[in-house]
Amino acid sequence: MGSLIFLLQLAKKHIMHNAGQSLTTVSIIAISGFLLLVLGGYGLNALDEVGESTAWDKGRHLDFLEYNVFLVISNLVIIITVTMYVLLQYIMIKNIARRQREIELFIILGASPLEIIGGFLCEVSLIVIGGLLLGGGAALWCSAIYLDVFVLLSQLLESHYLVTVDISYSLLLVLSVSISITSISILAALIAVKMGVKKSRSIALNCQRL
């Protein structure tokens, strides 16, 4: 979790510098960081419980080496997932700031804020659905890797363990991250449109004065 906190602090510092110290943007990072810590904690606890409860060979638990290898692989997958989510969220928020001019142009051309939000959310929804499908596939694939690793271990250790992994925890983590991405994307879209409306109003007032 230390590396996660470092990434969050780095993203917060960079976004504050590039977004004019936007309190709203920093708040999004802080809230999502808290969600990540909670999700990461639940994920690690769940995987720990899975390792204890569903790994067996005719009623016998895994030995010390096999169980710890299971935990290392499981925790590594969680860390990679959380890190990828932090980077994705950082890119999304930075992209919102870059597309502010595009949003302002749509407003000047006559598009309503609701139309802009709808178009933006359609784009985000496609990204989230694709991410959910890929994430679910990755979770299934990683679970298959768990099985392959333990089959290999059992062959190397000349034991005949067959380890089953409950993938519902992995799918639940992917679903929670997707919901978090969606909610943050909606909030970012609303903020961007609000900024665009303010900017277009100021431009309109300046044009009227001229």
UniProtKB/TrEMBL annotation:
InterPro entries: ABC3_permease_C. The chain crosses the membrane at residues 21-47, 67-93, 114-147, 167-193. One of its GO terms (cellular component) is plasma membrane. Keywords: Cell membrane, Membrane, Transmembrane, Transmembrane helix. Its main location: membrane. The keyword Cell membrane applies. It is a multi-pass membrane protein. Residues 77-199 form the ABC3 transporter permease C-terminal domain. It is found in: Cell membrane. It comes from the Bacteria. This is ABC3 transporter permease C-terminal domain-containing protein. It comes from Photobacterium lipolyticum. The lineage of its organism: Bacteria, Pseudomonadati, Pseudomonadota, Gammaproteobacteria, Vibrionales.
